[in-house]
């Protein structure tokens, strides 16, 4: 089964899991920990947030919470392929279904589909961190005090994870004292939208570029991230991972 439009049917990814026992264990882990999962249709044009309600191993079914609204569920049921993306113990999990049907579980609306034959479990790290594209730089807006007034400092993202971001502070205007917190920072994630986050400085590093100029890399941790914003960050990370897999496998 093809995991996503960017992954082939064969084991082209080093993170692909094919053991049925392990797949069921991972899905049950998502269910038991009540993790939110992104449900994508139409190639990611529409995204719904759901969770796994039950794994019926005997019937070979995964049962997930329905989307809000009858029309949304109908679009999901009519989709040719549905992709799912989530996090389990800070590890990215991706799988898909060729068909989802509308059902009910414990007297509540739900959706169901066969247990996937394969899934992707991304590399194990405390937080899966991925570099952001250099061709289309993403800006993080920090409100900082300059000469007694608040100004917006626009810094380029270097990488992103569900735990935080790293930015380049070329003019070295940020207070990089560990523990310094910046509230109401704005990050525009392509195809996802603008997210409002609080960022706390965790580390900084002076960089010397090939041209002899210096730059400063600042690592920041998300503080009190809401479930909605976490889901948005997670969707963007998964999007970047799909694009990277596409380049690695040569599929467009």
Itemize the secondary structure elements and their pairings.
Blueprint: E1 16-17, H1 20-32, E2 37-41, E3 46-50, E4 52-56, E5 61-65, H2 70-78, E6 82-88, E7 91-97, E8 101-105, E9 108-114, E10 119-121, E11 130-131, E12 139-146, E13 149-160, E14 164-168, E15 181-189, E16 193-208, E17 214-223, H3 227-249
Antiparallel strand pairs: 1-10, 2-3, 2-6, 4-5, 5-9, 6-7, 7-10, 8-9, 11-13, 12-13, 12-15, 13-14, 14-17, 15-16, 16-17
Question: What do these coordinates show?
Answer:
With 252 residues, this protein is of the alpha+beta class. It is 18% helix and 45% strand. The protein contains three helices and 17 strands. The strands form three sheets. The protein has a six-stranded antiparallel β-sheet with strand order 1-10-7-6-2-3, with helices on both faces. It is elongated and about 65 Å long. The two termini are 18 Å apart. Residues 1-12 have low confidence and may be disordered.
């Amino acid at each position: 089964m093809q995991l996503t439009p960017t992954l082939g049917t064969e084991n082209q990814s080093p993170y692909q899991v094919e053991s049925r026992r392990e797949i069921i264990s991972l899905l049950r882990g998502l269910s038991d920990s009540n993790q939110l999962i992104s449900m994508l249709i139409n190639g990611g044009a529409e995204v719904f947030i759901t969770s796994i309600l039950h794994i019926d191993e005997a019937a070979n079914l995964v049962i997930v919470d329905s989307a809000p609204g009858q029309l949304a569920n109908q679009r999901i049921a009519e989709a040719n392929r549905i992709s799912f993306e989530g996090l389990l113990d800070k590890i990215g999990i991706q799988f898909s279904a060729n068909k989802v049907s509308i059902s009910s579980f414990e007297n509540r609306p739900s959706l169901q589909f066969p247990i996937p034959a394969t899934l992707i479990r991304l590399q194990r790290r405390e937080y899966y961190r991925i570099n952001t594209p250099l061709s289309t730089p993403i800006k993080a807006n920090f409100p900082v005090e300059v000469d007694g007034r608040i100004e917006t400092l626009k810094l380029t993202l270097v990488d992103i994870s569900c735990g935080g971001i790293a930015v380049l502070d070329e003019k070295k205007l940020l207070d990089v004292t560990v523990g310094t917190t910046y509230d109401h920072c704005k990050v525009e994630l392509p195809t996802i939208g603008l997210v409002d986050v609080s960022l706390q400085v965790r580390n900084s590093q002076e960089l010397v570029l090939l041209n002899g100029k210096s730059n400063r890399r600042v690592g920041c941790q998300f503080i009190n991230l809401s479930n909605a914003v976490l889901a948005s960050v997670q969707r963007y990370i998964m999007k970047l991972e799909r694009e990277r897999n596409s380049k690695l496998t040569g599929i467009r």
